[in-house]
UniProtKB/TrEMBL annotation:
It comes from Xiphophorus maculatus (Southern platyfish). GO terms for cellular component: plasma membrane. Residues 501-550 form the Cationic amino acid transporter C-terminal domain. InterPro entries: AA/rel_permease1, CAT_C. This is Zgc:175280. The chain crosses the membrane at residues 37-54, 66-87, 99-123, 165-182, 191-209, 246-266, 278-307, 327-353, 374-394, 400-419, 504-521, 527-545. It is a multi-pass membrane protein. GO terms for molecular function: L-arginine transmembrane transporter activity; L-lysine transmembrane transporter activity; L-ornithine transmembrane transporter activity. One of its GO terms (biological process) is L-arginine import across plasma membrane.
Amino acid sequence: MSGAKMLQFLQSISRRKPLEPEGEVSNFRRCLTTLDLVALGVGSTLGAGVYVLSGEVARTIAGPSIIISFLIAAVASIFAGLCYAEFGARVPKTGSAYLYSYVTVGEIWAFITGWNLLLSYVIGTASVARAWSGTFDDLIGHVIANSLGKGAMIRLPGLAPYPDFFAAGLIMLLSGILAFGVKESAIVNKVFTAINILVLLFIILSGFIKGDINNWFINEDTLQRAFEYGQCGTGGFFPFGFEGTLAGAATCFYGFVGFDCIATTGEEVQNPQKSIPLGIVASLLICFLAYFGVSAALTLMMPYYLLSVNGPLPMAFTYIGWGPAKYVVAIGSLCALSTSLLGSMFPMPRVLFAMARDGLLFRSLSKMSSRQSPVIATLVSGIVAAVMVLLFDLRMLVDIMSTGTLFAYTLVAICVLIIRYQAELSEDSSLGKSEPFTVGGALCPPSQGTPRTSRNVSILTIATGNSRLCPVYFILYTDFSQSCFHVLQTLYENLFSFCPQVPFVPWLPTFSTFVNVYLMVQLGSDTWIRYAVWMAVGLSIYFCYGVQHSVQKQRPLYLHAN
């Protein structure tokens, strides 16, 4: 290939999309409110993990200090969330991290980001559907596993033990609801999320009533008598040391994955510049309070070394003599799985739609229904997820989902650095700092700085000495709640008064990038091999189809300008 052709090729894959593309019209129905977005973010993020993750981390990694692990994980997630919030206000269109990459770093990186998001969403959808089926099967005495395991067993490596037709049918049912209309889907999501929150409040209140503060400070003599239960650490609030708390934070981080689905609603929200940033921050804070409260209640109701890794909450209620409460937990778990499934399925067709509208994927995927829903993309994504849940052993694929999500988080953080750098260098930057723009009704000048708050969040102190818990736990949880809601109120005021921006640039986005990369390198070699196969398929589609059919190819003036 000659030098001129190579230069032309490099220019073609690095072309960027303008913020307001000529001829691009949004056909989505703007009907979602801020409450809809908060419910979507909470439902997507606060899935079945809140019923399982706490027991696993507390039992084997962190002990009672799991509450600190969740705090660290929440802070790291909020770093990524603030990056999404800023872009959600600047680029209020569908596509999430895919679109943010397209307008900032170029087409090839946008396609890679979109392809990573699709990987995360399709595996996430299939995994949650399988978990829903398994949880329901447990309640009915393993009827599904016994019947399909005997009559339709698959004996091939890497494939599922049997085709889970129940999970596949559930995916197609929800695909039909999503294809019917976004407002109807939001109503279903709010109902399930409300039930889930009520169940979690019941669990937290149970900790108020039956918790014992001594379970946070178990001595070594007690642990030696309980050694039959396995490795229990050294006792105290940090039985596995602060290293265990940090290791627990790395695991707990995945409990906050899912809020990015809010960023795909840019063309369906009534006021995206206000609702998207507020929805992201509010949903992350609510999820943190739920994880903090449940993990605190769990480790206070019974000693951490007795917790079950697979079903900690039913065992905890049995331990305190409230055995029938396990049915309440089961209902909450099914509702959490339902909202998590909707949260995984909701953004997938919108990323498909955005990529197809830009010509990087097949244009038929950008067809809209009469109810202003991306019906073809929704049904296709549902079919792909259903096939995944029927055929594949999803336990071998879940780590790849984390890879795709973390890659998207990393690129969004890098894009924040680039967009700020471009805005400072150029008065006529295409990314919006050269001209004033409005956010939530407020006019933001070109050089608007980072909003500041004058109040400090109170520092949590843990009082000890009582053997029963109620006053101590109530003060502890209330202090955290008030602090977090104070932060939320301050952010709310700033988001309506200033341009929503990531604070502490370049330090915060840089730190977020390092955290994401650190978590990615913890994944095993098998995960990276499977990830490479997925990326090879995606890049083949891009270079064989997307490069030639890209809408940006028809905009040579914009290409030369960049």
